[in-house]
Amino acid sequence: MKRLLWFIILLTGSLACGKAPLSKPEPAFYHWQQQFDLQPNELGLLDSLQCHKIYLRLFDLDLNDQQTAVEPFSTLSGEWPADRSLEIVPVFFISNRSFFNLNPMEVDSLADRLVRKARDIIENAPVGIRIQEWQLDCDWSSSTRESFFRFAARIREKLKTENTRLSATIRLHQIKYADKTGIPPVDRGMLMFYNMDNVRDPDTQNSILDLDVAAQYLSGFDRYPLPLDLALPTFSWAVWQRDDKTIGLLYPFDASTLEDTSRVKKLSDQQFELLKSTYLDGRFIYAGDVLRLEVAKPEQLLEAMDMLQNHLRAESRTLAFFALDKHLINFYSHESLEQIINSWNESDN
Questions:
Q1: Quick one: pLDDT at residue 322?
Q2: Which domains does the chain carry?
Q3: What is the separation of C-alpha 15 from the centre of its chain, rounded to a whole number of angstroms?
Q4: How far is 108 from 342, CA to CA, in rounded Å?
Q5: Which of 87, 231, 100, 211 lies closest to 170, judged by CA?
Q6: From CA 229, how far away is CA 170, in angstroms rounded?
Q7: Quick one: DSSP state of residue 64?
Q8: pLDDT below 70 — which residues of the chain?
């Protein structure tokens, strides 16, 4: 009888409290530049946030210029920080088109080549570097799903000998429509909470982060079987338009160049028209062209965190900011990033 009474008390308490509180996430950063050379201000930011984890892009896989074979590009160079105790997650961007027309044996060969090349790079890491996970970044489609999943499964099997996890980046639509897109054979997913609208559409307001668009995809999280980490955008770019057509992206982009009123006319907070033809960030922009500046502001990231807490399960997770570079250092203060991290367990869940 006493046990039954305690059970009723515990059950009543759990129902009154609602969902279990979400624990504070582990902070991390993506490093996406080809040169790995952490600057003092970047190291200082890591220290101030007590961040010891970096998702480090090692190289890309894509079709070569002749489109005859899949080859590595943008291989990491530079010096690993020798006096740091860091957890490094090697990341590999693989274009979706890399898997077009590959037979199963070619998929296996591609996976084996990725593992060999990655291990050649990783073996130069100093003693203080811990590697417990690799990550694949590929926005697979229905036509490439079978090949990509085979590719991931083969890499995961090879990593088991090192007691190393494999994760994959996951987009919002791949959760909402998981029955169609499938679940990749990996240990964890990284929810990429950005790039959620059509960047080429001239009517798009902010393709990087639009919470109204995101809200349309926030379903199916309770059924998604993979534990999910979370990546938020701390980058910006300028969408280059001519005659209401998008012709390119300026990334990375220094927004301070738009303050030159002799060359640029401000149409709105996001739209800027070139008054005369000129070079911007190494690209020649014609007079009359329009740049749409897109950025995720700190207050928008706080709103995103509040929104996601109502959908993501209560589990240990990493919160990774994309990406650690000059723009992040200049635009996001230590205080704003810390507030975003700490906001995760301040809701009423």
A1: 97
A2: 20-235+296-345 (3.20.20.80), 236-294 (no CATH)
A3: 35
A4: 42
A5: 231
A6: 10
A7: -
A8: 1-22, 346-349
